[in-house]
Write a structure and sequence with these properties.
Helices cover 31% and strands 15% of the residues. The chain is an alpha/beta fold. The chain folds into 2 domains: 1-98 and 107-254 and 274-328, Alpha/Beta hydrolase fold, catalytic domain (Rossmann fold, 3-Layer(aba) Sandwich); 348-544, Alpha/Beta hydrolase fold, catalytic domain (Rossmann fold). Strands 4-5-9-11-10-12-13-16-17-18-19 form an 11-stranded mixed beta sheet, sandwiched between helices. The protein is globular, with a radius of gyration of 23 Å. The protein starts with 8 loop residues before the first strand and ends in a 5-residue tail after the last helix.
């Protein structure tokens, strides 16, 4: 098996592991999960923390490295190994370009990876509080964001140790990214039994869920109680995984953070929530490769990772996302077509977004003229009505109106998604709006921006570094968020003792929950008149 040295496979039998560990006071059968843990591929040992009571297993391969002839092929399960895999360090990150620090923000705000990149990257990581393999604890599987082109399951703010302390098994995964994970070409179609291409990263996610279904019981988890959760493109993947028949039955709940748009919201089209047809993806990729001087799949396969990373930026644009492709196999239909047909998994949901993303800002700036021009571009012949609902006669009023509109608009899109979901499903949907600001450099300008909730969802404050001066209030928010999220993983309901009541959102109950600071329920839009206007506008747009 490839990578035996880097994976530190050690052919020790279980009694030797136990005796050696107990001799140095690291492990007690009464205090931690007995090791090694058997999987269907081989035995693994992890690292136990006596301080937290969590056993971590890092860098477990769930798939065969997609290298050589397996580059741009459907995911192949990992091969079996002999002896014990010492899962004490993360595997490599999947191939991606560096993500620069932007707007003065600290690296974790843009999910900056640490360590090397490699095609040999299909690993998952497990944190478990279980003391035996019979506990059947809820399982939470994190799908990282990064526009389908960046990120990793080993980024420090995704550390699952503190979240696992709330009584759940936490798993983070890697999946193929960008050109390596979503390339669609007619030449690749010809190689495929299903005559499709383009969804390799999604197939990786599905294979990891299959591994979890087969093996997580050995780590004290319940394979019949799995919650998938993710942020940004990872949050969109939560929705996409409900829409593929290949993932049916592999999870029971979903949490989508900053990854939800209503199908008729024009601002969601072309982003990580939307899907391209196979023909659209092929045309785009074939044009890109032609412009880059690549005239055959054979030539592309012969290139090294370094040569591929040296190609022009994928598809030449920020915002022109890779992502799920409607190929007739992984996805017989687009998401909302599948939803309307009743072919999307009926699972309880948490979904939401952050106050200062999608155009929101703690310190908005606009002139009256700029705001009016924005309304004309956004609403066309309905701009005059929008101006009456969001009036502004001074620049200060224009700035505030601009911000109120951005927040209303984002919440409306999520509410209409939930309304569409409720028309065909019975499972509850809980919608949130995150409003807590990360402390640190530029925090006053950043506000509750994109990704700012993740550190609190994982309670990974200790991993954020010295430039995040957390105080007790931050620790309290993290404790609350981990409780909401793990309550949901346990029961399908985030509510519990000592928490502000979070109501279900329904077509008849127009409500969302502010979480972070001063948690309370609110209507999706600031006034009823604005609600009706935005609803009418979005529902008049073509579905993407």
């Amino acid at each position: 098996m490839k990578r035996e040295c880097s994976m530190k496979i050690e052919a020790f039998i279980a009694p030797v592991l136990f005796v050696g560990a107990m001799a140095i006071g690291q492990l007690s059968a009464a205090a931690s999960l007995p090791q090694p843990v058997k999987t269907d591929l081989g035995a693994v040992s992890g690292t136990y923390s006596a301080t937290t009571g969590i056993t971590a297993f890092k860098g477990i391969p769930y798939a065969t490295p997609p290298v050589g002839d397996l580059r741009w092929k459907p995911t192949v399960p990992a091969t079996k190994w002999t002896g014990v895999l010492k899962a004490d360090h993360f595997g490599a990150n999947c191939v991606q370009r560096p993500r620069p620090v932007m707007n003065g923000q600290t690296p974790e705000a843009f999910q900056t990876i640490q360590g090397s990149v490699s095609e040999d990257c299909l690993f998952l990581n497990v944190w478990t509080p279980a003391k035996s393999a019979t506990e059947k604890l809820p399982v939470m599987v994190w799908i990282h964001g990064g526009g389908y082109s960046g990120g990793s399951g080993s980024i420090p703010m995704f550390d699952g140790e503190e979240l696992a302390r709330k009584g759940v098994v936490v798993i983070t995964i890697n999946y193929r990214l960008g050109l390596m994970g979503f390339l669609a070409l007619k030449e690749l179609d010809a190689e495929s039994k299903q005559h499709v291409s383009g969804n390799y990263g999604i197939l990786d996610m599905i294979e990891s869920l299959k591994w979890i279904s087969r093996n997580i019981a050995g780590f004290g988890g319940d394979p019949k109680n799995v919650t998938i959760f993710g942020e940004s493109s990872g949050g969109s993947c939560v929705h996409h995984l409900t829409a593929t028949p290949l993932a049916k039955g592999l999870f029971q709940r979903g949490i989508s953070e900053s990854g939800t748009f209503y199908a008729r919201d024009p601002e969601g089209s072309g982003g990580p929530s939307s899907m391209k047809t196979l023909a659209e993806a092929e045309a785009q990729d074939e044009t890109y490769l032609h412009n880059a001087g690549i005239d055959s799949l054979a030539k592309l396969r012969a290139m090294t990772v370094e040569q591929i990373l040296a190609l022009p930026r994928e598809r030449g644009a920020h915002g022109d996302f890779y992502g799920a492709v409607i190929d007739g196999y992984v996805y017989p239909d687009g998401y909302f077509t599948a939803l309307n047909k009743g072919n999307v998994a009926d699972v309880p949901y948490i979904l939401g977004g952050n106050t200062d993303e999608g155009g929101g800002s703690p310190h908005p700036v606009s002139t009256v003229a700029e705001f009016q021009e924005k309304l004309k571009r956004k609403f066309g012949d309905k701009a005059d009505e929008a101006m009456k609902l969001y009036p502004a006669t001074t620049d200060a009023e224009a700035a505030q109106a601009k911000n109120t509109l951005a927040v209303d608009y984002g919440r409306m899109s999520k509410y209409l998604w939930a309304q569409a979901y409720a028309k065909v499903h019975h499972s509850p949907v809980y919608i949130y709006s995150w409003n807590h600001t990360l402390p640190g450099p530029n925090s006053d300008e950043e506000g509750a921006n994109h990704t700012s909730e993740i550190t609190y969802v994982f309670n990974s404050l200790a991993k954020a570094g010295p430039d995040r001066p957390f105080v007790q209030a931050d620790k309290d928010v993290a404790d609350k968020m981990t409780t909401y999220w793990t309550n949901f993983a346990k029961t399908g309901d985030p509510n519990g003792k000592g928490l502000p009541v979070w109501p279900v959102s329904t077509p008849d109950k127009k409500v969302e929950m502010v979480v972070g600071d001063n948690d309370h329920s609110i209507p999706p839009v600031s006034t009823e008149a604005r609600f009706e206007f935005l609803k009418k506008f979005m529902e008049s747009q073509p579905a993407w």
